[in-house]
Design a protein that fits this description.
Blueprint lengths: L4 E6 L6 E7 L4 E6 L4 E5 L5 E5 L6 E4 L5 E4 L3 E5 L6 E6 L7 E8 L5 E7 L11 E6 L5 E8 L2 E6 L5 E6 L4 E7 L6 E4 L10 E7 L5 E6 L3 E6 L4 E7 L5 E7 L5 E6 L13 E5 L13
Antiparallel strand pairs: 1-24, 2-3, 3-4, 4-5, 6-7, 7-8, 8-9, 10-11, 11-12, 12-13, 14-15, 15-16, 16-17, 18-19, 19-20, 20-21, 22-23, 23-24
């Protein structure tokens, strides 16, 4: 049973809404429609704005300086605030035609951790040829993990040097302990597979260090106590395909959730931006030093 009020805030009908975040610089929600080649913004007056892109963007993230970091399919770029100029700063997997850049988060040291995604059209036969990377503030690129199919669920503990990650087809959320600047990465034992709630997509952390997971094809989001490894809350949504979520709003107590349209020609509730009113506060949005 839902313990929170859920509403549709933007009927944006995204083909593949993803990578939402609350920007403390302008107090707006930003997200990408990957297949629509658009960035969206929702301001404090609940007005939404669209920005056309030159290509698909797997993620958009905020910087300490003006503008954004954007992950196009095969490269990462810095854009201006108006999303009209794009400066390439890093090529990614240009030798692997089946992959594109997907989920990403700003890390606690000012870099970004991002992963790739095997988007071969035959979903049942996709091979684990994608990887997880870190792009440091000095623009050095390091591969953190390999043998991945769909990188998702990246989030960072606010109390410990722990990173969370999910390779969606495995249905499993993993825990990794990392050292400063990710010079070492060590997987911790965990049992974070939850049945009958879809599979893990995007994620975020709240102020109590609980992990919130968008459960694509599961009609819900869940809140997980990562120490006890159990579900604390399950909140049903109007869409079967939530993709990413972020805390935002004046007191950071609202969850905003993006979604995808599994069948884009259908006029359904999928693909919209939803708001979940909670009694939980989110963790602070980090700004990249790139």
């Amino acid at each position: 049973m839902n313990s929170a009020q859920v509403s549709t805030v933007v009927q944006c009908k995204n083909i593949l809404g993803e990578s939402c975040f609350w920007d403390p610089r302008d107090k707006c929600i930003w997200w990408t429609d990957i297949e629509g080649k658009k960035i969206w913004k929702l301001d404090q007056e609940n007005q939404s704005f669209e920005f056309n892109l030159p290509d698909r963007a797997g993620f958009i993230l905020p910087r300490k300086k003006d503008g954004f970091i954007i992950g196009f399919p095969k490269y990462i770029a810095i854009s201006n605030q108006a999303l009209t100029t794009f400066q390439k700063i890093c090529d990614v997997e240009t030798e692997i035609k089946e992959t594109r850049i997907n989920d990403a988060k700003v890390d606690p040291y000012g870099g970004i951790v991002f992963g790739t995604y095997n988007e071969h059209p035959d979903r049942q036969n996709r091979k684990p040829i994608a990887s997880l990377y870190r792009l440091a503030p000095d623009l050095s690129l390091t591969q953190l993990l390999s043998n991945i199919t769909v990188s998702n669920g990246i989030a960072f503990s606010q109390e410990e040097n722990i990173m969370y990650f999910a390779d969606t087809p495995t249905a499993r959320i993993q825990k990794f302990e990392y050292s400063q600047d990710f010079k070492k990465l060590h997987e911790l034992d965990s049992n974070l597979i939850f049945n009958d709630v879809g599979v893990p997509d995007g994620a975020t952390i709240d102020s109590q260090n609980n992990y919130w997971s968008a459960r694509v094809r599961g009609n819900c989001i869940i809140c997980i106590d990562m120490k006890k490894e159990k579900i604390l809350k399950k909140i049903n949504l109007p869409t079967n395909t939530p993709t990413c979520l972020t805390f935002g709003g004046p007191d950071s107590s609202n969850l905003f959730v993006t979604s995808l349209r599994a069948e884009p020609i259908n006029d359904s509730t999928d693909g919209n931006l939803y708001k979940v009113e909670t009694k939980t506060k989110g963790s602070k949005q980090l700004l990249s030093e790139i």
